[in-house]
Each structure stands twice: as C-alpha cells, then as structure tokens.
Amino acid sequence: xAKAKDMLMVVAKVVMIIxxxxxxxxxxxxxxxxxxxxxxxxxxALFANSELLNNPVVGVMIGVLVTVLVQSSSTxxxxxxxLVAADVPVKTAIPMIMGANIGTSVTNTxxxxxxxxxxxEFRRAxxxxxxxxxxxxLSVITLVTVEVCTGYLEKMTGxxxxxxxxxxxxxxxxxxxxxxxxxxxxxxxxxxxxxxxGWARNDPKYENSTTVLKTGCGDDSTxxxxxxAKLGPEGANxxxxxxxxxxxxxxxxxxxxxxxxxxKLLNSILGxxxxxxxxxxxxxxxxxxxxxxxxxxxxxxxxxxLTIIVQSSSVFTSTLTPLAGAGLxxxxxAYPLTLGSNIGTTTTSLLAALASKGHEKEAIQIALVHLxxxxxxxxxxxxxxxxxxxxxxxxxxGDITSQYRWFSVAYLLLMFxxxxxxxxxxxxxxxVAMYIILIPIAVLVLVIIFINILQKYxxxxxxxxxxxxxxxxxPLRSLDPIDRVIMTTFSCFxxxxxxxxxxxxxxxxxxxxxxxxxxxxxxLEKDVV
Length: 529
Hints:
Blueprint: H1 2-39, H2 42-48, H3 50-53, H4 56-70, H5 73-85, H6 90-103, H7 106-112, H8 119-150, H9 152-161, H10 176-188, H11 193-200, H12 239-269, H13 272-283, H14 295-310, H15 313-325, H16 331-344, H17 346-354, H18 360-381, H19 390-403, H20 406-428, H21 431-457, H22 474-477, H23 480-528
Helix pairs in contact: 1-4, 1-10, 1-12, 2-11, 4-5, 4-6, 4-20, 5-6, 5-17, 5-18, 6-8, 6-18, 7-8, 7-15, 8-15, 8-16, 8-18, 8-19, 9-18, 14-16, 15-16, 17-18
C-alpha cells in the first residue's frame, strides 16, 4: 500500500512538472509578446536613420535593442532579413545580426532571478545564463573589428551565394512546440506580425496602423475571440503600452511561479542519490580512450537539434538555466549546449530568407552571415581549452552575484538597456563624438584587464604599487561601498516598517487595556448597586 502511494505521488509530481514546463514555455511567449507591444513603433525609429546604420557600433546596439524589445533573435533576424530584401545593404545589416545574438540572452538572465533565494543555486544559474552573454559579447567585439578591417563575413557569404540557383518554393518546417502551446497562447493574445515587421521597415502601407494586436478576426458584434482583444481597439482601447505592461506582469508572475514550482518538484522527486547519478551521466565525457574531447561537439549537436525542434534559442537556454541552478548540468556542459543553440537558431532566419521575395540572394547572404558569425565565434572560443574565456568570466559573474545579489539586476539593466541606449544616444552626436568617448574607455578597460592578468600570473614584473589595487579608493576597487549603501537603505525601510508595526501594536494594546478597564468598572458598579 505504501509503495502504491509513493508511486502515485511520483506520477502526480511528474504530471505537475510537465504542466509547469508547459506554462513556463507559454510565459516565455507572453514575455516576448509584451515586449513587442511595448516596443511597437520604436522599432521603426531605430531603423529610420540610414546614416546611423552605416556605423557598425550603432548597428550592433540597434540589433541588441531590437532583440530585447521583441524578445527573440529569430524574430529580429527575420526582420533584418526583410530589411535586406527591401534594399538595405548587406554590409549595413551585418552588425545588426551580431547585436541580435547578444539581445537574445536577456531571457535566460531574467529566468535565473527566480533562484535568487538560494545563494549557491543562484550562483550556478546566473553563471549558466551569462556564459551565453560572454560568448556573444566576445564574438561580437572580435568579429566587428575583423569585419570593419577586412569585410571577412561579407566576402565569404557573398562567394557562397554567388552561384546560388532558384530559391523559390522553400517552406518552413513545422514548429512542434507551438503546436502544443498555441491553443492556450492564442486564446490569451494574438499579434499581427506583419504590422510589427512593417513598422520596423517603415513601410508606408502600415503607417496608419495603430496597434500590433490582431483586429478584424471576428464579426462586428463579438470582435476577436482572444482575451486581450477586450483591451484593444475592439474593446477598452487602453493602447499597446497599457496592454504590454499588463501582459508583462502576467508573464513574469507565470514565469516565476512555474520555475519555482519546477525547481521544488525536481528537488523533491530526485533524491540526492538520483541527482548525483543524473549529474554524473550528463556531465561525464565519452568513456572511450582518446575520444573524450569529442563530447563537447556531440553536446553542441544536441543543443542545435533541440533548438531547431523548439524554434527558439531563448526557450532552450531558459529551460537549461534552472537545471544548472539545481546542479544537474555543470557550466562546462552548459557552454557547448548554448553554443549549439546559437547554431540552431540560425535556421529560422535562413528559412525566412529562402522564402523572401525580392533581393533573394542578398537576404540569403545576410542569413548565412548569422550562421557563419556563430560558427566563427565557436572556432575562436571553444576548440582550444585556453580560449574558452566565456566560462571563467561567467563563473566570476556568478560569484559576484551570489555575494551581491543586487548586482544581477544592475548587470541586466546595464548590459541590455543602458549601455546600448547610451551608445545609440552618443551616435546621434556623430561618429567623432562617439569615438572620442568610447576609445579612451576601451583602452582603459584593456589596460585594467592586462594588469589583472599580470597580477594573477606574473606579479613580480609589475611595480610594487601595481601588484594589487589597494592604492585606489575603496569605491574604485570594490563593490562593498555600494553594497553598504543598498543594504543600509533596505535596512532603513525595514526599521521603519517594524516601527510602524510596533506603533500599531502599542495602539492596539492601549485600546485593549481601555476596554478591559471599562469592563471592570462596569462590573464594580453592578456590585455596588
């Protein structure tokens, strides 16, 4: 009887895990749609100034911002492919494709926040989320420089499409994941992606469109059948921004709730022994002599294949993050899975290019740029173990965030919003002003990195004063002063709350005393009578 009960409990937990996973994937779809609603016409503003787009640094930042706004590198690269098909030069679009790779990793960084309550889990989850960022940033910095100097990607992909035949008749393979999630997500919200793409390309055809929400899909009396249609032009008409904010809140609540439940259920269903077996099985190399080095490349293929199936690198890497936080997947194993996912996500833009009309070869060329960029990045930062810099960088970020949890929020805002926005704002002042500010900062950062490396490996060749950073004021060499300010601020809020609670408690006690005294007085009066 006890065994049957335990078996039923396990089955129930497995069903709950599948349910949580289903709604977690739906929440990612809602998160993406909320950013599209909030981004709206801003996409067109980013692509409007053709002179700015010719600056490669600005192109990268636009790629980052657009991908953050639409929450999908597949969508943003498809938009860029559409731009190329509509006469934007391939050379101009290459930096934007690179920036799109960076923006896509914002989702799994947000997902890692759900494990913030446990320092060790959060350290592992944040490191897994940011290893994607580190690879993308290092690849972009390296390849933008190479591309500006040599035109490497443009020339190579140009040669690849030079002898290309007819591309018509290509079709997109079925998206297996959306077949399962669409019935639920479409009952909540439906967007008109043609309007979004038209705004991004500044297409006059969509100039008078007022909303990204799908309209005119029902009869005049009922309107569209999905829930958010009641907030659109056919209902309360609160605007895309209002609908986007509501959907964003719903998506974040769903995402956090599902992930917390998922982690709790995984920890309860997998005992320590089972977790250890899974951890060893997933993280172990091929047990054949001299073939262990092939494990990472096989894992890459698995990552690419799974991403092609789900048609989203964000979904795949966001699902990987809580598993890394739970300790089931090591950072060293998550890294090649993430790289494979980067390859898998390029199939969407390639298929979009094959199905495009007008400038087909240029559209295919920019899609191949996306593929070649990721492959080149992998060749730079994976085959040679010494060059796997994203792993130690992500480990360092994980260590910092486990000590200073507020740093994760600061990192998210700085890397995906503030820094790209500042670069874009500087570009409005012209390229000279932008480079006058950026070049000294870049040189300073490189010098600091170089000194840090020497301090760790060859401190003897440095002057005594540079063998550590103790000569600098504390705010310039440590996050402790900022941490003290933040902790003091939160402590003040807590003290105020406690004082308010204690004041209300004292007031309640005083009222109770008065009530008791009045009851005693009334009893005494009765006795006297």
